[in-house]
C-alpha cells in the first residue's frame, strides 16, 4: 500500500505506524510530514485499485486492541461492528480509496491517574485531496467536493486523520466483548466447532477399529490356548 516515507534515516519498528497520546484530541492532521500529497506511481496505483476490487481490509492496533468499523442496519437499526476497515470501494468501474480516518478511542478510568484503552473505532472516509486545505496552522479543513479516486496512471493522495477520546464505562476485562460478537467471529466459532465434531467422529471410528482388532487378536490367542490344552 503506497504511503509516505519517513523523514531522515529509516529505522525498522515492528508494527508501529505512529503514536497517539492519551486523552489528547487531534483535529484534521496529515499523516505524512508537510502538506504535500503522496505521489503514487502507476504500478502502485494499479495494485491499490486491484486490492480495492478484491475488498481488502486494513487492520490497525492501539494498545493491542484492533480497530473496528461501526455500521447501522437500515431496516432494524441494529448496530454491528466489522473488524478493521475497508480500503475503499468500487463504483461503476471506478475505484475510491479511504484516505481519511476518524479515529475514536474509548478509555476507562478505574482509579485516579489510571487510564485504560477499552475501545478502538474507525470511521473511514474518502476525501479528494483537492478538498483538503491548510491555514496558518498544521490543522486541515475539508471543503465540499468528491471522493479520492484511484485513476489509471499516477495519482496524488493526501492521507489525513482525526483523533477523538471518549470516556467509557466498559471495564478492561470486557473490552473484547465487541469483537467476540462480530459476525465474522461467529463464523470462525462455527468453523472451530465443525472441526471439533469431525475430530471426535474420526476418533470414534478409529477407537472402534482398534477395539475390534484387539478383540480379534485376543480371541485368536484364546483359541490357540484351547488347542494346546486339547493336545496335552
From TrEMBL:
InterPro entries: EMP70. GO terms for cellular component: Golgi apparatus; membrane. Its main location: Golgi. The chain crosses the membrane at residues 189-211. The keyword Transmembrane helix applies. It is a multi-pass membrane protein. One of its GO terms (biological process) is protein localization to membrane. It is found in: Golgi apparatus; Membrane. Pfam families: EMP70 (PF02990). The keyword Cell membrane does not apply. Keywords: Golgi apparatus, Membrane, Signal, Transmembrane, Transmembrane helix. Belongs to the nonaspanin (TM9SF) (TC 9.A.2) family. This is Transmembrane 9 superfamily member.
